[in-house]
Target: Putative ABC transport system ATP-binding protein
Amino acid sequence: DTVILIEELHKHYHLGNQVVKALNGVSLTIKKGEYVAIMGPSGSGKSTLMNLIGALDTPSSGRYILNGNDVSHMSDDKLAEIRNREIGFVFQTFNLLQRYSALENVVLPLVYGGVPREERYRRGKEALVNVGLEDRMLHKPNELSGGQRQRVAVARALVNNPSLILADEPTGNLDTKTSIDIMRLFDQIHAAGNTIVLVTHEEDIAQYAERIVRLRDGRIESDVMNEARIQA
Ligand code: ADP
Ligand code: ADP
Model:
């Protein structure tokens, strides 16, 4: 029941003739059903780790096993397939297609996954009902509030029933009240048994997670259960 197994992950970038060591030996295990925040100051390696966990990039060295798949050295095509199957992404900027309705946006991962049309729409509607948007299914993103747009993105992340929900600063573009609504939604998703990794630099947001991993200078500085967890 291990979703993420990371061993001695290193990531180096080449900048001219300099080598930037963005991650310096990160090891991390996340089990099914966990809700983990990854925190750290600017430049600590959060985006780099998020890109590796999200199978958007591969490490310089070390091992990353995602739900039993070794994604450390995969080709870009194989990585794209793994991403679509295993990970539901939620971004700060929502990343919705403006020309499509909420429902059409939500079913897109199922189009890539080859799910038949009728089943796509059935599952898409179900996902939108689960995030409380049953009466906004045919609205386009520009007809929705920020919080509603992020709910659409969460429904899209869930529709494939992925092994991991990976959220990158999901409240970064939302006001405080709407942010709390979205964190409540993540609580609900977690309570339903989903595994969530939340990357954020906001202490208040990290407090919703049940475990907090802190990065500094490309290493894990601390990894603790969050005793003061906010339960929305
Ligand atoms: P964070 O998301 O916590 O701000 P990053 O993962 O973006 O941290 O960056 C970690 C380190 O790696 C920083 O020193 C940053 O400047 C460097 N870095 C990140 N991406 C690149 C890149 N594409 N090329 C060169 N250096 C990079
Ligand atoms: P391809 O380039 O092969 O079409 P994509 O890079 O579009 O593959 O991504 C495939 C999956 O990864 C999609 O489900 C998409 O939502 C997700 N994804 C992950 N990271 C990103 C990102 N930064 N931007 C857009 N989609 C992303």
